Amino acid sequence: MIDVLKIRKDFPILQREVNGKPLVYLDNAATSQTPQQVIDVIVDYYSRYNANIHRGVHTLSQEATDAYEQSRQKIQHHFNAGHPYEIIFTSGTTHAINLVANGFASILKKGDEIMVSALEHHSNIVPWQMLCERTGAILKVIPMDLNGELIMSEYHKLLSNKTKLVFCNHVSNALGTVNPIVEIINAAHEIGAAVLIDGAQAAPHIKADVQALDVDFYVVSGHKLCGPTGVGVLYGKEEWLRKLPPYQGGGEMIAEVSFEKTTYADLPHKFEAGTPNICGGIALGAALDYMNNIGLETIAAYEHELLEYATEQLLAIEDLKIYGQAKEKTAVISFNIEGIHPYDIGAILDKLGVAVRTGHHCAQPIMDFYKIPGTVRASFSFYNTKEEVDILVASVKRAKNMLQ
Ligand code: PMP
């Protein structure tokens, strides 16, 4: 059971007001809020041991290096990766996907096929389109249905011995659909294709065990996990990380440099050029500790209660339509009210202190599928309450009365 009132005390931002009203923060799918425990780790880093890592003999540098590498191990254990060096720190999901896409430029050949799902965020579409332009590979799309679920029979038909790589999100940011990644991974492996799963939206609610999944790449962003922005993780299977060339060149990622020839550092440093987001990496470990102390299963069960409650209340509003009613979904509700632009609803909700996201949610193909310009998206976290759902519902009714 979650003691939500106790948990809320950990999040200083939840005490603030917006436009004279208590903040009701329902934009958790865009970014989650940061608990004091993580803020303290950030302050402690800059107050006590801010230094560059991996190079210094001095105490501060060693302390920072130890904290950074311990965080890598925490992340390894969280995702049950086989080795710490299979965890690459990135600036976020987008960076991680681009790193892998860049690597595949040296592997794919003209006519090879790579496959994306219809439910993707732009960051899991555009890097692959760029890869196709570079290599002559062909992009195939697993279609979706009106419930916001992937049509798996079509997926199986699209797979062939030409398919080299499949990438799909674990959870859709626009609709909250939880995708059948076990089936996706197993079927791709049967024909010898690699799989990248974008776990940006799943990681705050579902613990992915990368070894049990046997996934080739799994990527997440720290800022959706109660951590800071500017840090994320690429998990890659050792064999793939050894096969892929480095993404960026620079300091940290080399073994030896001369003007004739440069050799690269071993994993994970091969993919970590330049001074990384040291504080961010350390804080991400602290954020995972915070979430694991509550427990992801407990978090997901509570959020599901909020989802069911909010769905029922919102559907009772006349002319309100929810997009994406997948059998399995996280606590995301994407909706519109007939005849009203989502932006106008979002602007009124903001005046009432309610933070939601409006627009295409970086998933324009999904909006095109439903033939809409965008939606209002309320996304819930474990620190939200039923009272906040009531405020959302009352505010949406008020916006509707003002706008319709
Ligand atoms: N994929 C999904 C499913 C997302 O929700 C997001 C963030 N909205 C991203 C990728 C991109 O993450 P970031 O901006 O942190 O790189």
TrEMBL record:
<dbReference type="InterPro" id="IPR015424">
    <property type="entry name" value="PyrdxlP-dep_Trfase"/>
</dbReference>
<dbReference type="InterPro" id="IPR000192">
    <property type="entry name" value="Aminotrans_V_dom"/>
</dbReference>
<dbReference type="InterPro" id="IPR010970">
    <property type="entry name" value="Cys_dSase_SufS"/>
</dbReference>
<dbReference type="InterPro" id="IPR016454">
    <property type="entry name" value="Cysteine_dSase"/>
</dbReference>
<dbReference type="GO" id="GO:0031071">
    <property type="term" value="F:cysteine desulfurase activity"/>
</dbReference>
<dbReference type="InterPro" id="IPR015422">
    <property type="entry name" value="PyrdxlP-dep_Trfase_small"/>
</dbReference>
<dbReference type="Pfam" id="PF00266">
    <property type="entry name" value="Aminotran_5"/>
</dbReference>
<protein>
    <recommendedName>
        <fullName>Cysteine desulfurase</fullName>
        <ecNumber>2.8.1.7</ecNumber>
    </recommendedName>
</protein>
<keyword id="KW-0808">Transferase</keyword>
<keyword id="KW-0663">Pyridoxal phosphate</keyword>
<comment type="function">
    <text>Catalyzes the removal of elemental sulfur and selenium atoms from L-cysteine, L-cystine, L-selenocysteine, and L-selenocystine to produce L-alanine.</text>
</comment>
<dbReference type="InterPro" id="IPR015421">
    <property type="entry name" value="PyrdxlP-dep_Trfase_major"/>
</dbReference>
<feature type="domain" description="Aminotransferase class V">
    <location>
        <begin position="24"/>
        <end position="392"/>
    </location>
</feature>
<dbReference type="InterPro" id="IPR020578">
    <property type="entry name" value="Aminotrans_V_PyrdxlP_BS"/>
</dbReference>
<comment type="similarity">
    <text>Belongs to the class-V pyridoxal-phosphate-dependent aminotransferase family. Csd subfamily.</text>
</comment>
